[in-house]
Amino acid sequence: MRDGILMRIVMRSIAAILFLAIAVPWKFLLPETIIPLYYILSSDFFSEYYKLNHLVAGGAFDQNGLTRILAIILFMETFALLGRNLLILTSKRRGWRIACNLLFSLGFVLPVCWALIYTWELSRYIAVMGITPARIAGVRFAVLLFFVPLFCMLRWNMAKCTPKRTGVIFLVCAVLAYSAVAAIDARAIRAVATHPRPAVCFPNRVAVPEKPATATDYGLKEICFGIGARR
């Protein structure tokens, strides 16, 4: 009995730490998230703040590039998933389950906002520089970043979920995640076409070539099977 109570305390404490890991960044990241997000979702923006003449490349983990942004998003989504699954085991009450699902569904809001920005910057980068195997892998990760929250929120809130229903949810979420990435990509292509060509590529501040080195068009085929020799 006492061992069971101690185990529940330990599990709830660990889950609380996991949730704080995804909740605390709100204070520090929200302003930087909302301003680029506004441009993605609207038709106009404060061009003096958001530099459309800059591109964001992959970079490394110690640089403010796409690789670092991707790592942060994966970290937050993983902790939201693990935190919910750990916390929900501490009680079998229906109200507790609903509270856990709601709490950790909200925990996905920040990483989804950053997933929008990651996809936006990656799409602009590809539209200017062209596609490569590494950039196609980045697009696959973008789809995954939207798929995980969608799948978790739908799966968590279904009373009974048979393997067939789980498969249907999987397919629906995959379609929605790909549609989100495709919509952001189309918006980014339009932004590149209607503004002067970017001149600088961060985080290494290298010059952007006048023409893309490879083709810039890609679709579901390239995402699933990679790029062909003609690329």
Q: How would you concisely characterize the structure shown here?
A:
This protein is mainly α and 231 residues long. The protein contains eight helices and three strands, in the order H-H-E-H-H-H-H-H-E-E-H.
What is the number of beta strands?
A: 3
Question: Kindly state the mean pLDDT as a whole number?
Answer: 79
Largest sheet properties: 3 strands, mixed
What is the tally of helical segments?
Answer: 8
Question: SSE order, as H and E?
Answer: HHEHHHHHEEH
The strand order across the widest sheet is 1-2-3
Radius of gyration: 20 Å
Distance between the termini: 64 Å
Strand content: under 5%
- Poorly predicted segments: 43-49
Helix-strand category: mainly alpha
Helix content: 55-70%
Overall outline: elongated
Q: How would you explain this protein's 3D organization?
A:
This protein is mainly alpha-helical and 231 residues long. Helix content is 68%, strand content 3%. The chain has 8 helices and 3 strands. It has helices at 2-23, 25-41, 66-87, 94-106, 109-129, 133-156, 163-193, 220-225; strands spanning 54-56, 200-202, 206-207. It has a 3-stranded mixed beta sheet with strand order 1-2-3. β2 (200-202) and β3 (206-207) form a beta hairpin. Residues 43-49 have low confidence and may be disordered.
Features:
mainly alpha, elongated, 3-stranded mixed sheet, 231 residues
